[in-house]
Design brief:
52% of the residues are buried. Helix 2 (45-54) packs across helix 3. This protein is of the alpha/beta class and 766 residues long. The longest helix is centred in the C-terminal third of the chain and has 25 residues, at 516-540. The protein is globular and about 90 Å long. Strands 14-5-6-9-10-13-22 form a seven-stranded mixed β-sheet. It has a three-stranded mixed β-sheet with strand order 2-1-3. Among the domains are: 13-99; 106-191, no CATH class; 214-415, Anaerobic Ribonucleotide-triphosphate Reductase Large Chain (Alpha-Beta Barrel), CATH 3.20.70. It is 43% helix and 11% strand. Strand 5 (214-218), helix 12 and strand 6 (243-247) form a beta-alpha-beta unit.
């Protein structure tokens, strides 16, 4: 029982929305909080009202009073119960609704007058105001938690919008006056079944609706004109908030001869510093710096300099710290590291073509150059590998992607050699001097498919189909920063479907990460997603229904002929795998996809930092990084405890102040808390307490149903070169395309931190 003591001056006033001042009334504050707290267990409105009134400032506006009350509740959720966070959101959202107009047309009309809404969006809202308005359910605003709504408020909603207006803006951007499809998409988004990527949420309905997420740029050629043309293309894409992956394998190394001037090349470092400065200068309309990931193959003679570019030590003239770096690693290099053999470094001007081939063809060409003594330098392969591992331990990067796996297991392999991934390592697409690859992303919110203690696969397939159609429409409706982006996207029509909240699902279904049940569910989820996406894509290219196979050539993606899919090979066939979900008609689907599909690529689990925070889920397919989080908003930092853990402890009568203190003292871990049941400790192991072999095995299990790749972070609390090396070789031998996105390490005494600021990799936050 809490004693309520309220200390207020007799002359304390609050300023109402109409400008009048009235005395502060504890009872009015309490009544409002009680109304908004209805149905929330473990919440004491009297205590909240007491805390608010005891710290109130004279003359505070009612809107500011609501903001303060919401912050107060948000701060209470770690100490008392996560439902205080829900109350915080309700207060915030109720206040926001009081400050905004509910009418969609009124909101769009104001945005149009401000120059923010496109004419087409304004025209649609003007032509069909009742049709769209009747679909909107503003009660769904209250589905957000405090941090989710703050994230929307900070960076996603346009001025005057409510969350439901934002969802409707996306639905109208994609479907216009196709009202059944508008409602279908609006309902799916507003109820949290899936979410489109950040650029789609940002830019739908605006004058330049750049809806795509990731762009893979090909270095034009190794010349001043080629390099600066590529730089200009990167700047143009970055201007419209696109994340960029750029391969630089074909740029000559330091000291290579420049025939035109008889001088010597300065190599990659000075060039990349120019790209680094461009990423900072073209700051996406003042929102944030551009984001470029640079990919290099390990045979390049500048590889040692490349590995130092992100280091904290060293002079600024030798570093380009604002770029991100990835290695495009061939099997031959890994084999030589394993066998402790020598490795040759080469310059592409004297050893051309190495980036244009893979597999046996690459090995033959590379070894041929070695036999001709054309290498710039030789070194033990293990020495270079040690440099890679050391760089990862110090900086978290470079990313590791395996060139041969990416090409051998791609439905785009017939187009030519794939040369890089994107900013977040889940996109694997063909690029060329004529084509800049693009990908269009969205993620399924897996917790929405848990019903009555079971996972609803039928519903998962249904919403996967909706998202697949939507992402295909994005290809037609997006604004293209360059003509080469449009050429590639329309020719290959790739999409990338990801997930969020796998950790939430395991917690809800009582499945520890190391359990056989978790492993089986992980694979079955992705089998169902791939099946549904491929089915929908096939039907999109078909003149008839599921029973027919007649293909409309205009609906099929143009580069389909010659692809593995056209030969009857689905992604799992490229892995020599067989699906385990026998209730799905895989043979029938294969036959029909062989006749034609709408999209060359379908699945690409990406990071979902921002969009997971919006929907209140854990990021993508990662375990919880901690059971205690510090989340930061503009007004300060808030401690949050794992909501599933708290629910379990409340049921067991173990959610006490001593337990809370112990969780804080253990930096979010409960593994040494023997007063808790072993089942609870097993269920809530953090990623630092789960063997990386488990995460890699899960990545391998779902990989045959991922036709692009996956943003696989690896976590070591105390990394050593031997641990890191062993981990990477295990991932490589498992056949993964992405061996490692970031290597995450941690300081022993820090809880995981979150922010409502969109992350650097916002393009992939689907």
């Amino acid at each position: 029982m809490v004693d309520i003591v309220v200390k207020m001056s007799d002359h304390m006033y609050v300023t109402k929305r109409n400008g009048t001042k009235v005395p502060v009334s504890f009872n009015e504050v309490l009544t409002r909080i009680q109304r908004l707290a209805e149905g929330l267990s473990h919440v004491n409105p009297d205590l909240v009202a007491q805390k608010v009134c005891n710290q109130i400032q004279d003359g505070i506006k009612t809107s500011e009073l609501d903001e303060f009350a919401a912050e107060t509740c948000a701060m209470m959720q770690a100490r008392y119960h996560p439902n205080y966070g829900k109350l915080a959101a309700r207060i915030l959202i109720d206040n926001h609704q009081k400050l905004t107009n509910s009418g969609l047309f009124n909101v769009v009309d104001n945005l149009h007058e401000m120059g923010l809404a496109s004419y087409d969006y304004w025209r649609s809202a003007d032509d069909y105001p009742n049709e769209y308005q009747s679909m909107i359910d503003f009660s769904r605003d209250f589905m957000f938690d405090y941090f989710g709504f703050k994230t929307l408020q900070k960076g996603y909603m346009l001025p005057g919008e409510r969350p439901q207006h934002m969802w409707m803006r996306v639905a109208i951007q994609l479907h216009g006056d196709d009202f059944p499809r508008v409602k279908e998409t609006y309902d799916a988004l507003s109820q949290g079944y899936f979410i489109h990527a950040t650029p789609t949420l940002f830019n739908s309905g605006t004058k330049h609706p750049q809806l795509s997420s990731c762009f893979l740029v090909h270095m034009q050629d190794d010349s001043i004109k080629g390099i600066y043309d590529t730089l200009g293309e990167c700047a143009q894409i970055s201007k419209w908030a696109g994340g960029i992956g750029l391969s630089v394998h074909n740029v000559r190394a330091r000291d290579a001869l420049i025939k035109g001037t008889n001088g010597k090349s300065t190599g990659l470092t000075p060039m990349l510093k120019v790209f680094n400065d461009t990423a900072k200068y073209v700051n996406q309309g003042g929102k944030r710096n551009g984001s470029f990931a640079i990919y290099l193959e390990p045979w390049h003679a500048d590889i040692e300099e490349f590995l130092r570019l992100k280091m904290n030590t060293g002079g600024d003239d030798e570093r380009a710290r604002d770029l991100f770096y990835g290695l495009w690693v061939c099997d031959l290099f890994m084999q030589r590291v394993e066998k402790d053999e020598m490795w040759s470094l080469m310059s592409p001007d004297t050893c051309p073509g190495l980036s244009d081939c893979w597999g046996d063809e690459f090995a033959e060409l590379y070894c041929g150059y070695e036999r001709k003594n054309l290498a710039v330098k030789e070194m033990p392969a293990k020495k270079l590998w040690q440099m890679i591992v050391d760089a990862q331990i110090q900086t978290g990067g470079p990313y590791l992607l395996y060139k041969d796996a990416c090409n051998a297991k791609s439905n785009q392999q017939h187009l030519g050699t794939i040369k890089s991934s994107n900013l977040c390592t889940e996109i694997v697409e063909f690029t060329s001097p004529e084509e800049t690859a693009v990908c269009n992303l969205g993620s399924l919110a897996l917790p929405k498919f848990v019903e009555d203690g079971k996972f609803n696969f039928e519903k998962l397939r249904s919403y996967t189909s909706i998202l697949t159609r939507n992402l295909d429409i994005v290809i037609n409706k997006t604004y293209y920063p360059t003509e080469k982006c449009k050429t590639s996207n329309l020719r290959h029509r790739p999409i990338g479907i990801g997930i969020q909240g796998l950790a939430d699902v395991f917690a809800m279904l009582r499945l520890p990460w190391t359990s056989e049940g978790a492993a089986q569910l992980n694979r079955e989820i992705f089998e169902n997603i791939y099946f549904a996406a491929a089915t929908t894509s096939m039907l999109g290219a078909s003149q008839s229904d599921w029973r027919g196979i007649a293909v409309d050539a205009e609906k099929n993606y143009p580069s389909f002929d010659g692809s593995p899919m056209s030969q009857g090979k689905m992604q799992f066939d490229l892995w020599n795998e067989t699906p385990k979900s026998t209730y799905l008609n895989w043979d029938g689907l294969r036959r029909m996809c062989k006749a034609g599909v709408r999209n060359s690529l379908l699945i690409a689990p990406m990071p979902t930092a921002s969009t997971s925070q919006i929907l209140g889920n854990n990021e993508c397919f990662e375990p919880f990084t901690s059971n205690l989080y510090s989340r930061r908003v503009l007004s300060g930092e808030f401690m949050v405890v794992n909501k599933y853990l708290v629910e379990d402890l409340v049921k067991l009568g173990l959610w006490t102040s001593d337990i809370r203190t112990a969780i804080i003292a253990n930096n979010g871990s409960i593994q040494t808390m023997l007063e808790l049941p072993v089942e609870i400790r097993d269920l809530y192991k953090t990623v630092w307490e789960i063997p990386m072999k488990t995460l890699i095995n899960m990545a391998r299990d779902r990989a045959p149903f991922i036709c692009q790749s996956q943003s696989l972070n690896l976590f070591l609390s105390e990394p050593t070169p031997s641990k890191v090396s062993s981990m990477h070789f295990y991932a490589w031998k498992a056949g993964l395309k992405t061996g490692c996105y970031y290597l995450r390490t941690k300081a022993a005494a820090k809880a995981q931190q979150f922010t409502v600021e969109p992350p650097a990799c916002i393009s992939c936050s689907a």
